[in-house]
Specification:
Helices cover about 15% and strands about 35% of the residues. The protein is an alpha+beta fold. It has three domains: about 210 residues, Mitogen Ypm (Jelly Rolls), CATH 2.60.120.510; about 120 residues, Distorted Sandwich (Glucose Permease (Domain IIA)), CATH 2.70.70.10; about 80 residues, SH3 type barrels (Roll), CATH 2.30.30.
């Protein structure tokens, strides 16, 4: 038996109600036998041949899956806390919060709780999603898993979620930076869950950035003045790229590491460069160059100068600019805008009182709005009456992420609750 299994089996199997905090005892009394049935049903669905993760079995197990398996192998799924951890990992996916990117969230995790939280993220083709997790406290693993929603929504497990509904796209554990490059528009769910019997604090940041470097030196979003799909030649053809305007002779840069496949000129593009991006199975197209700075077969790194802005080819009557396109294998031309468009937004400052983290509280008014994201304009998950117990789990900008005894989580303002104890 591993050290993890031995330690946690000893602690979990010896847990007694009189050692639990009042908040935990009250919640478990409330759930009673109904929770036990729910936990067993969830485990049966998850472990069975038709469970929601059946399509992952042919892939290497993730750190989260290995930990869950260790709990079961050690018999810890028969304890209340072990069952709750396994159920929480699934329920978080069924009811994710909505992340407004970029975002920073500072939160806590508690050895007496088995909780998970998930965030729903919308990504565009060409964006890189980057999340960084830093944690302190006792030595512990905090598992991060990213899933793609490949149906209209994440189907609840009661409706038998399958490989066609939820597909894992990346995973990591401990204190990490997780990155994922989206090659189509989609919705993703990031789940965060600490291992059992650990307490600490974490700082999670989530942001998006373009997948590629900007291809013209010293220029930015404002220089993009003609977009993908715009009609050309009276509608006889469409624009298969974006135009980035800059003075003649401005350096044109490699947007990624790659190999120069061709510099042969053509009538439309004039002096052009075809740069192979093998990592993403696509080719970058640079046109209307004044002159080249590379030759066929050259290997370049992102940021290297490969040519200079001009107006050769059919751009002779227009101001100097770079026509930048992307051609993906099996798809042809794709819109390159999100691949290079810089994200200028910054995470809102954390102004909520972080000293309240982990505290127990009660709702303050008779009509508390529990939001799905830290914004007054976001959807209300539910309305809550006064004097309902909750726990403060995280702060995000001026908002608090809280969790109620029934497991419902969301964001509220500071005036929505009053702290009642440690």
């Amino acid at each position: 038996m591993s050290e993890l299994q031995s330690e946690q089996q000893s602690e979990l199997q010896s847990e007694r109600p009189d050692r639990m905090p009042t908040f935990v005892r009250a919640r478990r009394r409330l759930r009673g036998s109904a929770f036990t049935l729910l936990g067993l049903a969830t485990l049966l669905v998850s472990c069975g041949p038709s469970g929601p993760f059946q399509n992952f079995r042919e892939r290497p197990a993730t750190a989260h899956e290995r930990y869950a398996r260790a709990l079961r192998d050690a018999g810890l799924d028969s304890t209340a806390l072990g069952r709750e951890w396994l159920a929480a990992s699934d329920s978080a996916l069924r009811s994710p919060l909505v992340a407004v990117l970029p975002a920073q969230e500072v939160g806590v995790y508690d050895r007496d709780e088995a909780r998970a939280v998930a965030y729903r993220v919308a990504l565009r083709d060409g964006q890189r999603f980057r999340t960084t997790l830093r944690a302190d406290g006792l030595p512990a693993r905090i598992y991060l898993d990213l899933f793609e929603v490949v149906a209209d929504s994440i189907t609840p497990f009661a409706h038998r979620a399958t490989a066609d509904t939820l597909r894992r796209v990346d995973r990591a554990s401990v204190t990490i930076t997780l990155e994922y490059e989206a090659t189509r528009d989609g919705v993703f769910v990031l789940r965060l869950q600490p291992e059992l019997l650990r307490s600490g604090r974490f700082d999670l940041t989530m942001q998006v950035e373009p997948m590629l470097a900007f291809p013209v030196e010293g220029r930015g979003n404002a220089a993009i003045q003609s977009l993908f799909g715009v009609g050309r030649e009276g509608g006889r053809r469409s624009h298969h790229g974006i135009d980035i305007f800059a003075p003649r002779g401005t350096p044109v840069l490699a947007a990624t590491d790659g190999t120069v496949r061709s510099i042969s000129p053509n009538n439309l593009g004039g002096n052009v460069i075809w740069l192979s991006d093998e990592r993403r199975r696509q080719t970058l197209y640079y046109a209307h160059l004044d002159r080249h700075a590379v030759g066929q077969g050259d290997r370049v790194r992102a940021g290297d100068t490969i040519g200079f802005v001009g107006n050769t080819g059919n751009a002779r009557t227009t101001p100097p600019h770079l026509h930048f396109g992307i051609y993906r294998r099996g798809q042809g031309p794709i819109d390159p805008l999100m691949y290079v468009r810089r994200v200028t937004a910054r995470s809102p400052a954390l102004t909520a009182d972080a000293t309240q983290l982990g505290r127990r509280a009660m709702t303050n008014t008779s009509n508390v709005a529990l939001r799905e994201s830290p914004s007054a304009a976001s959807q209300t998950r539910r309305r809550v009456g006064s004097d309902v117990p909750l726990q403060i789990m995280a702060v995000n900008a001026s908002w608090y992420r809280v969790q109620f005894e029934d497991g419902t989580t969301g964001y509220v303002t500071a005036g929505a609750f009053r702290v009642v104890g440690d």
